[in-house]
Amino acid sequence: MSSVTRKVPARRRGLAARIWSERWAYAFLLPTLLLFGAYTVWPIISSLYYSMLDWKGLGAERPFVGLDNYREAFGDPLFWKSLGITLTIIAVTVPLRVGLSLLIALVLNNPRLPLARLFRTALFVPAVTTTAIIGVVMGFIFDPAGGPVNQLLLDLGIVDQPVDFLGDPASSLWTVMGVHMWKWFGITLVYWLAALQTIPATVYEAAKTDGAGNWAALRHVTLPLLRPFLIIILLLTAIETMQIFDLVLTMTNGGPFFSTLATEVYIYQQAFANSTPRLGYGAALGVLFGLVTLAFAALQAVGIRYANRARSSR
Predict the structure, then answer these.
(1) Is 53 helix (H, G, I), strand (E, B) or coil?
(2) DSSP notation for 241-254
(3) What is the DSSP string of 119-140?
(4) Residues in CB range of 57: below 8 A, 6 or more apart
(5) CB under 8 Å to 69, separation ≥6 — which residues?
(6) Partners of 53 in the beta sheet?
(7) Which residues of the chain have pLDDT under 70?
(8) Burial of 57 (0-12, 13-18, 19+ CB in 10 A)
(9) pLDDT, tens digit, 9 for 90 and up, residues 99-112
(10) Nearest to 119 by CA among 131, 137, 101, 146
(11) For FRET with 299, which of 91, 155, 274, 285 sits at 20 to 30 Å CA-CA?
């Protein structure tokens, strides 16, 4: 018994000694930990708490309602519609972005291509432009009353009358998805360019020595070696596509007739923008949407593990 009691304090002293010896590392980490706790951990905890209240965001009355907000969310058709719209945006834009960016990356990765850096920069510039500004500008560009897109279509004789791209439920979602793809295309392109840089030049030299042409090298060397990155890039792009709030808000505000009502916009409307804000209900919707995002993040972790195994088995 005495030997056990001696080992425990010794272990504690050893841990305390290691912490003290690395005190400067912990001191430099402290600001980051404080900010992470204040702006990430605490909002998550407070959202869980607010989701169980019937609170408008103002006033001292905060009646506790338990899981009533979650029950209402499960029976809310607009919530399910918004979630369906968000998943539709993911299902349509993610494969297109990943596929098109891979094709462009294969072209721009050629060191003998003139002005390759200029093309890379031009494709990446929209990604670093403020999304809200792009949304406002696109509203003017697609404006049926004198917008340049409609003016061009009329001059070319493609349409007889202006098209209300953002005011027609049949075209508004497709227009938003097109702008979103253009805005973030450069990010996915950078992913693929980084993946292509991991393929050693000696592999291509060996393929040429064996008599493989450009098409054979692409089919039997490049694409198989890029396969582990495909899962990661797909999941990264899907998670990023879920964060479409600012573009939808500035372009359509979820309209017309809820045709572009992404889940983030619906949460914002319920919590802050309604005539009678419902912060508690909005928090419950945010928690549920966070669980969906968490599921994609879990898939991403599995994809990263698969990619590491695939790369180590080369």
Answers:
(1) strand
(2) HT--HHHHHHHTTT
(3) HHHHHHGGGGS-HHHHHHHHHH
(4) 271, 272, 277, 279
(5) 51, 52, 54, 280, 281, 283, 284
(6) 64
(7) 1-13, 310-314
(8) middle
(9) 999 999 999 988 78
(10) 101
(11) 285
Residue of 193, 192, 216, 195 lying closest to 204 (CA atoms) = 216
User: Looking at residue 4, what is its pLDDT?
Assistant: 47
pLDDT at residue 139, rounded to an integer: 93
Two tokens at 64?
Answer: 């506790």
- Token pair for 251: 């372009």
**Six-digit token pair at 16?**
């305390």
The pLDDT value recorded for residue 12 is 57
- CB burial class (10 A; 0-12, 13-18, 19+) of residue 158? exposed
- Please check whether residue 180 is in contact with residue 93, taking contact to mean a CB–CB distance below 8 angstroms: yes
For residues 67-91, b (16+ Cβ closer than 10 Å) or e, as one string? ebbbeebeebeebeebbebbeebbe
Measured over the CA atoms of residue 148, residue 153, residue 157 and residue 162, the dihedral's sign is negative
Q: What is the mean pLDDT of the chain?
A: 88
How many angstroms from the chain centroid is the CA of residue 188?
Answer: 11
* Token pair recorded at residue 209: 């020595």
Query: CA-based diameter of the chain, in Å?
Result: 94
Does the domain spanning 68-313 belong to CATH 1.20.58.480? no
Name the residue among 83, 9, 105, 73 with its Cα closest to residue 284.
73
**Location of each CATH 1.10.3720.10 domain in the chain:** 68-313
Q: Which amino acid is at 230?
A: L
SS3 91: helix
For the four alpha carbons of 158, 164, 168 and 174, in that order, the dihedral sign comes to positive
Closest-CA residue to 232 (of 143, 124, 179, 311) = 311
With tokens 């607009």, the residue in question is: 78
Angle at 27 between CA 21 and CA 31, to 5 degrees: 160
